[in-house]
Amino acid sequence: MKKILSIILLIFLIPNISSAKSIKEAYFAGGCFWCVEEFFDQVKGVEEVISGYSGGKTQNPTYKEVTYGNTGHFETVKIIYDEDIINYKGLLNFYWQNIDPFDAAGQFCDKGSSYRSVAFYKTQNEKNEIKNSIKIIEKKFNGRKVVTFIRKFEEFYP
User: Fold this and answer.
1) Contact, 96 vs 70, CB < 8 A?
2) What are the tens digits of pLDDT across the range 8-17?
3) Which residues contact 126 (CB under 8 A, 6 or more apart)?
4) Is-catalytic flag, 32?
5) Bridge partners, 19 (sequence order)
6) Considering only CA atoms, which of 11, 3, 10, 24 is closest in space to residue 129?
7) Cβ pair 35, 28 in contact under 8 A
8) What's the predicted TM-score (pTM) here?
9) CA–CA gap between residue 142 and residue 36 (Å, rounded)
């Protein structure tokens, strides 16, 4: 009986390996974070999108500090995604389709340093993906220079 009870407990306590997800995080800035959040929410494989700030020096910045101050932060989204459904390159392709990578003043009607576009990377592979995708965009647009920043991810403040 003890053996049967142990087997039953194992069945319920060990997660189902076949349904395990490969959850990752990615960080992008592309103007107003609510707009960026909205378009990433539509992507299959994206589990959650959280608005916040990244790229600056001020800890726990407020909206007012980022918008009117000199925090160095960008309005950024944290994307939690299932890599088995969409990979970083897929997210990056979607990102480029929804921002203007040639606008150094901000994005669309949102202008200012906190609205600049930034592709943050956590790994060397992500950095390479960003650089390769920029080469493709610049070639597609006859050498027009992409001004989106490429930054190493440091900290995110929701």
Assistant:
1) no
2) 444 445 454 4
3) 26, 88
4) yes
5) none
6) 24
7) no
8) 0.85
9) 26
Of 70, 77, 7, give the one whose Cα is nearest residue 37.
Answer: 77
- What dihedral do alpha carbons 147, 98, 121, 90 form, nearest 10°? -130
The neighbouring-strand residues paired with 81 are: 24, 46
- Pairing mode of beta strands 106-107, 110-111: antiparallel
For residue 85, what are its two tokens?
A: 């459904």
Question: What is the spatial distance between Cα 36 and Cα 32, in angstroms, rounded to a whole number?
Answer: 7
Residue 36 has pLDDT above 80, yes or no: yes
Structure-token pair, residue 62: 């407020």
Q: Which of 24, 26, 27, 32 is catalytic?
A: 32
Q: What is the number of other CB atoms lying within 10 angstroms of the CB of residue 54? A: 23
Enter the tokens of residue 129.
Answer: 């993906």
Could you read off the pLDDT of 86-122 as tens digits, one per residue? 999 999 999 999 999 999 998 888 898 999 999 999 9
**DSSP bridge partners of 9:** none
Closest by CA to 46, choosing from 31, 59, 36, 33, is: 36
Pair 81, 23: CB distance under 8 Å = yes
